[in-house]
Amino acid sequence: PLILGIETSCDETGVALVRGHTLLADEVASSVDQHARFGGVVPEVASRAHLEALTPTTERALDRAGVTLADVDAVAVTAGPGLAGALLVGVSAAKAHALALNRPLYGVNHLVGHVAVDQLAHGPLASPTVALLVSGGHTSLLLVNDLATDVRLLGETVDDAAGEAYDKVARLLGLPYPGGPPIDRAAAEGDATAVHFPRGKLGDGSYDFSFSGLKTAVARWVESAQGDGEDLHVPDIAAAFQESVVDVLTAKAVAACRDHGVGHLVISGGVAANSRLRDLAAERCAEAGIELRVPPARLCTDNGAMIATLGAEVVAAGCSPSPLDLATDTSLPVEQVLAG
Ligand code: ATP
Ligand code: MG
Ligand code: FE
């Protein structure tokens, strides 16, 4: 079946068409430039941008795929988690398509979509798979028995998300928003051993994460260097910060695989685009005999393909469609793949 996927949970308007594990089109319009000067996403600005972008983005995706709306067999949309007004734009449009086309509607979980999208690059996920989800708003370890029906939460951040830590530390270092890509680039020129920042919750035996202490440690370091009139060596601080983040992420992901006897790990979400995370995860998984999968960088950040792929998965699993009065859920739990 041909699945139309719509994503509007944050600041990317994504529309994609997927058949099985084949991606026919994936168009993304981002309002990130409109938020940059605020150092974070402004919800009202994001909602308006989705309203303006959704129709042209849908038309581009249909053109690219060489199909029309009449060819669509099912409509999948992000029902949550995300920003209330932003989610509402996508869900309203998806309902309108489903009603007008007389096709089933599936309100799906954005976070599970981040994991599902890897199937476009690497085929069906092994079962079970441990998933490390690292994004702007979430940092979670999942045990995925079945993408459509059985996703379990093993642990998550108790404070900041990994991407949020990148964004906040970038700001401290005078780097632009969003902070992940510029820190990734700066770190490549720096010495990660120049400073040793704390490793949040490493060695506590849990699968939970904490990044706010690290952020505070970087802030103190920057303040004291500036107070002493020292030159801030941004590449070194970026590299040392990044090493602390990826050390904890990879150690806990490998521990979750080992403890659950699982030989497969997938890393996804915007921070999975990080080059040092990808390298260290590959190294530690190779040592531990774990098969690692990470989607290509362009599929790691928000897009419609992740939602269309998860839509294809729930259709294939025979899940019941969502009602046409489907509600958005700004804090939809990750274990709830389909919104009710
Ligand atoms: P969520 O999925 O939790 O709702 P989101 O959709 O806003 O949040 P994503 O789009 O998945 O998050 O990811 C955005 C985050 O990824 C930002 O915090 C950004 O800084 C981070 N990011 C993007 N590229 C990189 C990179 N190369 N290194 C580290 N972080 C990165
Ligand atoms: Mg974004
Ligand atoms: Fe996301």
Automatic annotation (TrEMBL):
Q: Which reaction does it catalyse?
A: L-threonylcarbamoyladenylate + adenosine(37) in tRNA = N(6)-L-threonylcarbamoyladenosine(37) in tRNA + AMP + H(+)
Boundaries of each Gcp-like domain copy?
A: 23-308
What this protein is called in its record is: tRNA N6-adenosine threonylcarbamoyltransferase
Give the main location. cytoplasm
The family line of this record is: Belongs to the KAE1 / TsaD family.
Residues engaged in binding substrate? 133-137, 167, 180, 184, 274
Q: Please state where this protein is localized.
A: Cytoplasm
Keywords from the named record: Acyltransferase, Cytoplasm, Iron, Metal-binding, Transferase, tRNA processing
Residues involved in Fe cation binding: 110, 114, 302
Cofactors required: Fe(2+)
Q: What does this protein do?
A: Required for the formation of a threonylcarbamoyl group on adenosine at position 37 (t(6)A37) in tRNAs that read codons beginning with adenine. Is involved in the transfer of the threonylcarbamoyl moiety of threonylcarbamoyl-AMP (TC-AMP) to the N6 group of A37, together with TsaE and TsaB. TsaD likely plays a direct catalytic role in this reaction.
EC annotation? 2.3.1.234
- Whichever gene encodes this chain, its name is tsaD
Q: Which GO terms describe its molecular function?
A: tRNA N(6)-L-threonylcarbamoyladenine synthase activity
Entry cofactor note text? Binds 1 Fe(2+) ion per subunit.
Native organism is Lipingzhangella rawalii
